[in-house]
Automatic annotation (TrEMBL):
Principal localisation: membrane
Record localization: Cell membrane
Disordered: region residues: 709-733
InterPro entries (alphabetical): MMPL_dom, Mycobact_MmpL
Protein name per its UniProtKB record: Membrane transport protein MMPL domain-containing protein
Amino acid sequence: MTRLYARVVVWLRWPVAVAMIAGVAVAAVELPALSTGGASGLGSLVPPDSRAVAAEQDASERLGAPILSRTLLVQRRPAGLTAADQRAIVRQAAAVPRASGGRVLGAVPYVNHTAVTPHGGERATTAVTGLFFGPDVAPLDQPEVARDVVDRLRPPHAAGITGSLPAQAAQGDLILDRLPLVEIATAVLVALLVGLYFRSPVAPLLTLGAVAMTYLLTDRMLAQLATHSQTAIPQEVQPVLVVLLFGVVTDYCIFFLSRARTLLDEGQGRLEAAIEATTAITGIVTAAAATVAAASLALLVSDLQFLRAFGPGMAGAVALAWLVVVLFVPASLAILGRRAFWPRPRPVAPLTVAEATAVTTPADTSRLVRLSVHHPFVACVLCLVVLGAGVSGLAETRLGNPLMASAQEGSEVRRGYEAAKAGAGPGVVAPTVVLLRRAGLQRDDGQVASFQRWLERRPGVAGVLGPADAGFAAPRRLSLQGDEARLVLIFRDDPLGGRAVEGLRAITAAAPAALADRGLAGARLTFAGDTAITAEMARTTVASLLKIGALILAVLFLILAVYLRALIAPLYLLASSVLALLAALGLTTYLFQGALGHDGLSYFTVIVAGVLLVALGSDYNVFLAGDVWREAKDRPAREAIVTAASRTSKPIALAGVVLALSFALLALVPVTLFREIAVVMVIGLLLDAFLVRKVLVPALISAFGSVGSRRGDGVPRRGAGRPAVSPAGPPSP
C-alpha cells in the first residue's frame, strides 16, 4: 500500500507540488492570521469553576464596586515622600475618576508609613495607588487608560504602572514584537544545520519551503479555531508553535532527504530513488506524527479551557505537517533528484551497501551502542542514576505565574514592580482579599480581629489589613451588607510566585480549624485575588497533567504496540520518555530556583514540557525501535540492536539537536517564562537524543531480550523477512 502511494505521488509530482503551493498561497491571502485576533494573555485563562473568581465577583456585586485592583500606579522617592507629596497623592487619587472620563470608578492610595507591611525599615518612601475600573473597560485596555490618566495628572515621583493586567498586556506586546525575530532565527538555524548536514544549499531551501507551508496553514487554522470555538489562544503559545513546527517538519524532512541521498548514491535513478525513499519513510513519519497528534488530542480532558482548545489545534498542526511532508517533499525529490543535494558530486561508482552503511554508522557511536547492548544492566543502572539525579529536583519545584517579576528588564511594569517591592514589599502589588461570611458577623468583630492576628503570624505573610489594625477599627469599614468581613492579606514574596502560592495553600488548609478556635465555626471562608487564582491554576495544571499524562501514555502505548507488534516493549520505551521529562523538569528547577534564585517555575512551562517531551520522545521511539524490529527479522536480537541503533543514532542526534536549538531560540523573547521553556526543552531533548535513545533504550531492549522474552513482548523474534529499511541508511545486507 505504501509503495502504491509512493508511485502515485511521484507520478503526479508536478500537479501535487503546484497544487500545494497554490493552496497555501490562497489560504495565506484569504484567511486571517492568528496574530490579528483570537489571542489573549495566559493570565486571564482561569478554570471555569474558579472559586477565587466566583468569590470576587460575588463580593463585588454585593458591594456595588470592584474589590480588587490589578492596575496600579507606583510612586517612589527613596529619600522620603514629603508631606506635600503625600497630600498631592491623595488629592490626585480623588481626581482620577474625572481625569479618566468616568472609566475609572475610584483610586485608593497606600503609602508605606504604617507598619502593616514592614520592608527594609522604609517609611513614607513609596505610594501604591490601586485603580478600580468600570465594567465597560476591557481588562487588557486598563493599562492604556491608566497611562492616559498619568499623562493628564502628572503625579510626582511616578515610577511606573504595574500590576498583573499591565504585565499581561506588556508580555503580549513583547511576544508579538519578538515573534518575527524568533521566526527568522529559527529559519537561519534550520538552513544552517540542514545545509551543513547535506553540504548543499538546495536541501535547506526545500526544508524551509515545507516549514513555511506548514506554518502558514497552521496559523490560519488556529485563527479559524479560535474564532469558531470562541476560545482565546494565549499569545504565549505562538512562539512555542513556531519552534515546534520548524523542528518537527525539519526532522521529518531530514529522514526523507537522508534516505533519498543514500539511494541516489547507490546508483538509483531520480524517480526510483523518490519512490523507494517515500516507501521507506512514509510509514515511519506517519507513526511519529500520530504519536504527537494523539498526545495533543489528550489535552481535551484538561480542566483548563485554553488547553481543550489548543489540543485539537496542535493535533491539526501536526497533521498539516505530516500532510505537507508526505506530499510536498516526495514530489519535490522526484522533480529535483540529485539537484536537491547540489553541488554534491555524483559518485564515480555507486556505493555498495556496506560502504553506504559505513558512511551512516560512526565508529564511536557503534562502540557506545555495543557497550550498552552487551552490558545492558550496567548501562541501565548508570542511566537511571543520571536521570534520577535530575528527577530529585522535582521535590523542590514550586509553581506560579510571576508576570511582574519576570517582565522585561527596564520595562515600565518591571520598574513599577521593583519600586513597590523596594518600598513596601512585592505583595502590595497584588494583595489577597480574605472574605468571611456568616449571619451577624458584624457583632463578632473581636473574633474577626483574632483571626486577623492569626493570619499575620502565618509564614510568608507581611501584614493584614482588618479590624485589628488601628486604621480599620470601625467594623463597618469591613462590612458587606452586615454579614461579611473583608481582610486584605499581603505576602512578603512575589504574590504570583511559588512561595506565595504555597503560603496561601497552607493558610487555606489550616484556616477552618483557626476559625473554629475563635468561635467562628461555620463561617464561609473564601479567598480572592491573583494569588488565589494562580494557586488554582497551579493545582489545576498538576491535576490536568495527571489525567492528560495517563491518557497520552495509554494512547501512545496502543500506537507503539500496533506499530511494533509488541506489548512489553512499549512500556519501557514510554517509561524512558517519562524519565527524560521528569529529569528535565528537575534539572530546570535546580537551575532556576537553585542557581538563579527564582521563586518558582511557571505552570505553563510544566504544561509545555509535559506534553511535548513525551510526545517527541515517542517520535524517536518510532525511529529507533522500528528499525531494530526490522533488523531483527534477519539477525539475532543483539546484533539487530547494534546495527539499527548505530545506524539511526546520527539522524536521531541531528533531529534532537535541531529541535533543541529551535526551542533554545525561545530565549530571544526576554521573558522568564520563555527562558524556562527553552531550558527545559533543550535539556529534555538532549537527554532523550544522546542518553535515552543512544544508551538506555538499546540497553533496555537487550536486557529484556536476555531474560528470554521472545514473543511479541520485550524484543522482536528472529525470523525470515525482507531486508530492513532504515530512515537513515540503506537496506540491511
